[in-house]
Write a structure and sequence with these properties.
Helix 6 runs antiparallel to helix 15. With about 425 residues, the chain is an alpha+beta fold. The protein has a domain of about 150 residues. The strands form three sheets. The protein has a four-stranded mixed beta sheet. The protein has a two-stranded antiparallel sheet with strand order 4-5. Strand 4 and strand 5 form a beta hairpin. The protein is globular and about 75 Å long. Bound molecules: protoporphyrin IX containing FE (HEM). The site of protoporphyrin IX containing FE has 23 residues, from helix 4 and helix 14. Pathway: Secondary metabolite biosynthesis. This is Cytochrome P450. GO terms for molecular function: heme binding; iron ion binding; monooxygenase activity; oxidoreductase activity, acting on paired donors, with incorporation or reduction of molecular oxygen. It comes from Rhizopogon vesiculosus. Keywords: Heme, Iron, Metal-binding, Monooxygenase, Oxidoreductase, Signal.
């Protein structure tokens, strides 16, 4: 019976998509810096579920929240795997972090550790620390508004370092710089499109690192050493603190206390704690059928979160400043929590409650104290600019000229410090 079902499935069409070339597939048609733009253009022609081929890999792009939910949430057990090579550097043994784990026991251990530390009722423990970090962000912005990008990055890194390792960051912290450097490399270079090229031509990995064109290998080897430091150094710090009985609540101290003596968990705590951020593809475990189309086993599933957002919430583009989108016609808050940012199904972001509270406390604190305005030129006219975005597996706005000025004209560091101490 299962044989008949399988042969019937094999004759089903694949989802619609652009015509592939014999070896390249659709690789040549994809905007490699901003693939989501290509995926959006394809969706206008082919719809919400698109089949494409990158070299020898089947890639299905989900371009709407509806299809993403139908597959990744409602059929979660079939779509909770990760592609074999999410990252090019996985070829060189860089695959210990939670987002890259296949759907199996090691991943389950990682998720348990995250869940214990960051489930909704546990994540509230970190709120006083998050508020303290939001206040530090205000002081940094007041003192040195031109470097706002650095202050925002320091804010999010220092919350993660505190919640995961109970590590208090210092100004210009070397550990934060190291982690920022490693994350930058991952985001820029470790895209699923590049992983597909190396998966199709594994012999490329045999080229010596100095060979022209083998830059990915040089990069992967460098990344391997940076990532090893990123896993070992903060973990050793947290372990020492835990052993001396001095540690406050953190993901590592909670994990060590709970699973002490279980070697597989101790390794999982070390590996999972190095995870700071994910935006990564899913993979289909078995053949599946959706809307009359075949989704073959092993297919890489990419959700175009960017497009999902821009078509989300009554087609109001997320890049427009338009708070009205969160109100009902009668003026009450609607129930839109913009959940697609966290992904879907069993691989949904494991740090979402912590991250949500960090973003919220930082935004409300900044809006209370500052106005964010366009920068002015020498003649006092507003400087207009076209927003630009970084490329890679995650994207953020490129630094743009702006003025961050206190809403109260008499605000200085001393006043702000005293206001903060009254508020806490
Ligand atoms: C605003 C900040 C954040 C955003 C937008 C975000 C978003 C995401 C997204 C989209 C995924 C992929 C979900 C999927 O595959 O469907 C993910 C995975 C993940 N995130 Fe986050 N995340 C954020 C912050 C964090 C933080 C602070 C932590 C940890 C403290 C964290 C831990 C993880 C982990 C462990 C995974 C992998 C889950 C798995 O593969 O099972 N994230 N995140």
């Amino acid at each position: 019976k299962s044989f008949t079902k399988k042969s019937a499935q094999e004759h089903l069409p694949l989802p619609p998509g652009p015509k592939p070339l014999p070896i390249l597939g659709n690789l040549h048609q994809i905007n490699r810096a901003f693939p989501w733009i290509t995926y959006k253009e394809w969706s206008e022609i082919y719809g919400d579920i698109i089949y494409s081929r990158i070299l020898n890999q089947n890639v299905i792009i989900l371009n709407s929240e509806k299809v993403a939910r139908a597959l990744l949430e409602q059929r979660s057990s079939n779509y909770s795997d990760r592609p074999r090579f999410v990252m090019p550097s996985a070829r060189f043994g860089v695959s210990f972090r939670t987002p890259m784990q296949g759907y199996g026991d090691a991943w389950r251990r990682h998720r348990r550790i995250f869940h214990q530390a960051f489930r909704p009722d546990a994540a509230v423990i970190y709120q006083p620390m998050q508020l303290r970090k939001a206040h530090q962000l205000l002081l940094d912005l007041l003192h040195d508004p031109g470097n706002y990008e650095l202050h925002l990055e320091t804010h999010s890194a220092s919350i993660i370092m505190s919640a995961v390792y109970d590590y208090e960051t210092k100004p210009n912290d070397p550990l934060v710089s190291m982690i920022r450097g490693a994350m930058d490399s991952i985001i820029k270079a470790e895209t699923p499109e590049k992983a597909a090229i190396i998966d199709a031509y594994p012999t490329l990995t045999l080229l010596p690192a100095w060979f022209p064109g083998a830059s990915f290998k040089r990069h992967a080897l460098e990344l391997k050493s940076v990532l090893t430091d990123m896993v070992e150094i903060p973990f050793e710090y947290a372990l020492d603190k835990f052993s001396s009985g001095l540690s406050a609540t953190s993901m590592v101290s909670e994990g060590l206390a709970r699973f002490q003596g279980d070697a597989s968990f101790e390794l999982a705590i070390k590996e999972s704690s190095a995870t700071a951020f994910g935006g990564v593809p899913h993979a289909a475990v078995n053949d599946d059928v959706y809307d009359g189309y075949l989704i073959p086993k092993g297919t890489t599933i990419l959700t175009n979160i960017w497009y999902g957002h821009n078509s989300h919430t009554q087609l109001l583009a997320s890049h427009r400043h338009d708070p009205e989108r969160f109100f009902t016609p009668s003026g009450d808050l609607n129930d839109d929590l913009v959940t697609p940012v966290w992904g879907w199904g069993r691989r949904i972001c494991a740090g979402r409650y912590l991250a949500d509270a960090s973003v919220w406390s930082a935004i409300v604190s900044m809006l209370t104290v500052f106005d964010f305005l366009k920068a002015k030129d020498a003649s006092g006219k507003d400087i207009d600019f076209e927003p630009r975005w970084t490329s890679g597996v995650a994207s953020r706005p490129v630094n743009f000229p702006c003025r961050i000025i206190p809403r109260r004209g008499d605000m200085d560091v001393e006043k702000l410090t005293s206001l903060i101490s009254i508020a806490t």
